[in-house]
Specification:
Layout: H1 2-13, E1 26-27, E2 33-36, E3 42-46, E4 70-71, E5 77-78, H2 100-115, E6 120-124, H3 137-141, H4 145-163, E7 169-177, E8 184-187, H5 192-197, H6 208-215, H7 220-223, H8 233-239, E9 244-245, H9 263-268, E10 276-284, H10 285-289, H11 293-310
Parallel strand pairs: 3-6, 3-7, 7-10, 8-9
Antiparallel strand pairs: 1-2, 2-6, 4-5, 8-10
Amino acid sequence: MILQTMLFFCLLLSGIFLAGVFGETEWGFKRYTKYEPGNMNLIITALHGGKLSPSSQSNGEKWPCRKNGCKGIDGKCIWTHNCGETSTDCFAKAKGDLNTAVVARDIADGIKAMTGFRPHVVYSRLNRHKLDPNRGISEATLNVPDAIRAYRDHTKFIEKARSVIRGRGLLLDIHGHAHKLPRTELGYLIHKNSLVRGEYSVKETSIRSLVQHWCGRNDDSCFKDFITGNRSLGHFMSQEGLQAVPSPQNKTPAGETYLTGGCTVVKYGSRDKGNIDAIQMELPKELRFGWGRHSKNRLARAISKFFKLNY
């Protein structure tokens, strides 16, 4: 018991955990959204792993699947089901990221098993055909009332998790890709071409707060250690035998497809303000479909090590 108490205070002083306690699982409207409160300065979101696909809304009206929007005369997209002729320029992505809800849960459970503390986790349980919370509200919902309610619950739960974090924190947005190379793409809002050239700055990234804490405001050389060096999440994933880009082993995507981060990382990361950083994790299908105890432990260890060192 004495040893456990000493360990708790050592971890607390190291800055890993926040003041806060586990709470009961919270559900949004019609259980379309789920929030598992945690007790550390880490939030995990799983936005495209939902399976629910209701055909009708609570008011009895049909709930049509999301589709392309229409292009207005000002060139902007109109996101409704009755806007008229749709346009491929206003493409509504609706393919889900299979198994990411399970991955998010297992990462959180794995971190708790290793540390005794669990991240906050927010899930969208709706199929992406019905709701895409990683978009602005109109594109996400096509203005379907029940989808709007679920979207607002999703926003409320993330904000609630953020509100109990004191000091610096991190949000990991879990997604999945089916690109050629089986490696995790880590999105920091740095454009692919900027990574290839090695030209990117602190001010443009979703981990601005983290970098400025350790490097100061304008040290772009120090900054790169958090993207492709030994302080990066990619480094700790590589240590666990999990390929990632960017990382010390794969500093750039080169000519391959690469996702830089979406709406959630923009909205909840520290690029524009605040002390909570955000990273989008695009997991390859090989990792998601071959998910098991071994994979769960490796990814949870990598995240724990990254978080402990930097936060």
